[in-house]
Write a structure and sequence with these properties.
It is found in: Cytoplasm. GO terms for molecular function: ATP binding; metal ion binding. Keywords: ATP-binding, Cytoplasm, Magnesium, Metal-binding, Nucleotide-binding, tRNA processing. This protein has 152 residues and is of the alpha/beta class. It has one domain (2-151): P-loop containing nucleotide triphosphate hydrolases (Rossmann fold), CATH 3.40.50.300. 26% of the residues lie in helices and 25% in strands. The protein has helices at 9-20, 39-49, 92-97, 111-116, 147-151; strands at residues 2-6, 28-32, 64-67, 73-77, 101-105, 122-128, 134-140. The two termini are 13 Å apart. The chain binds adenosine-5'-triphosphate (ATP) and magnesium ion. Magnesium ion (MG) binds next to α2. The site of magnesium ion (MG) has 4 residues, from α2.
C-alpha cells in the first residue's frame, strides 16, 4: 500500500490539488475514512486543482453537487446511502457518461457495484493518526496507472 502523510488540512488540500493534475475525464475517485478524516478537505483540493473557485462543501442532503472548472467535478457524499444499489437511483450511470471527474465520499460503500460493472476507480483512504496528522493511502485498480507513484 502506498501512502503519503500530511500534517495539516492545508497539506491535504495541496495533495488533492496535485492529484487533480493527474486526472482525466471519466475518472472515479472513491474517498474513504472516518468522520473528520479529511475527505471533504481533499475534495476541496481537487476542486482547486480543477480551477473551481467556489467553496466545496459536502453535499450531504443532496448526495451530489456539480462544480464547473477545467473539467466538471461531481462531488457525491454517500454517508446516508441505505442500500448500495441506490447509487443508480442518483443517476450514477449518467454521471459516468459526463465529461468530468466523479468524487465519492464514503465511496468504499459502492466498491462492490463498481467492481461488478468493471468501472475503474482510484481509491483514496484517509487515516487519522493524530490531531493534525493523516496517512493518505492511494490505490488504483488498473495496472496502467500508478497514481501514488506519480504523486510521490
Ligand atoms: N492533515 C489534515 N488533513 C485534513 N484535515 C485535517 C488535517 N488535520 C486536521 N484536519 C481537520 O480535520 C477535519 C477534516 O474535516 P473534513 O470535513 O474534511 O472530513 P471528512 O472526512 O469529509 O468528514 P465527514 O465524514 O464528516 O464528511 C477538519 O476540521 C480539518 O481542519
Ligand atoms: Mg466530508
Amino acid at each position: 500500500m502506498n501512502y503519503i502523510c500530511t500534517n495539516s488540512p492545508e497539506e491535504t488540500i495541496e495533495l488533492g490539488k496535485r492529484l487533480a493534475t493527474l486526472l482525466k475525464s471519466g475518472d472515479v475517485i472513491l474517498l474513504s475514512g472516518d468522520l473528520g478524516a479529511g475527505k471533504t478537505a481533499f475534495t476541496k483540493g481537487i476542486a482547486l486543482g480543477l480551477d473551481i473557485e467556489d467553496y466545496v462543501k459536502s453535499p450531504t442532503f443532496t448526495y451530489v453537487l456539480e462544480y464547473k472548472g477545467k473539467m466538471s467535478l461531481y462531488h457525491f457524499d454517500l454517508y446516508r446511502l441505505q442500500d448500495i444499489e441506490e447509487i443508480y437511483d442518483l443517476g450514477f450511470e449518467e454521471y459516468l457518461q459526463c465529461d468530468g471527474v466523479l468524487v465519492l465520499e464514503w465511496g468504499d460503500r459502492v466498491k462492490e457495484v463498481l467492481k461488478e460493472d468493471e468501472i475503474d476507480y482510484i481509491s483514496v483512504f484517509l487515516e487519522k493518526v493524530g490531531e493534525k496528522n493523516r496517512k493518505i493511502y492511494f490505490d488504483c485498480n488498473t495496472k496502467e496507472r500508478n497514481i501514488a507513484k506519480e504523486l510521490l
